[in-house]
Amino acid sequence: MSRTDRGSRVIAAPEATVYGALLDRESLEAWLPPDGMRGRIEQWDPRPGGGFRMVLTYLDPADSPGKTSDATDVVDVGFAELVPSERVVQTAVFEADDPAYAGTMTMTWDLTAAGDGTEVTVTATDVPPGIDQGDHEAGIASSLANLASYVEARG
Q: What does pTM read for this prediction?
């Protein structure tokens, strides 16, 4: 059965600024990793049909063993759809031996004007069953909080 996880946050920045942070390599490395992780992008091709490979490293792998190794999650992300200042649709495939993490998860980032800011809604569909729903939604919320801090500090 397919599972969908979600998160949403209003960010005090215009849609174009938020959209730019979704498609900038250095920005993604800074804000995308949830609390307790750091990220490094190894490959980068920011266009429809392109994508990136990110290595996420747990700062304390004892609490959260990785999907790829004891301390890491490696994910190949494709850009399925890019609509400037409105939407970014990504496909994500984790590098893992455990079949509970197999398959392609789709992450849709919708941007909507909200007063002087932007409401960012993340919808993850076809979430692999090995990913705990509560942990995943907390991770989405953490990434959204990081995104808000990142773009609001530059606004």
A: 0.92
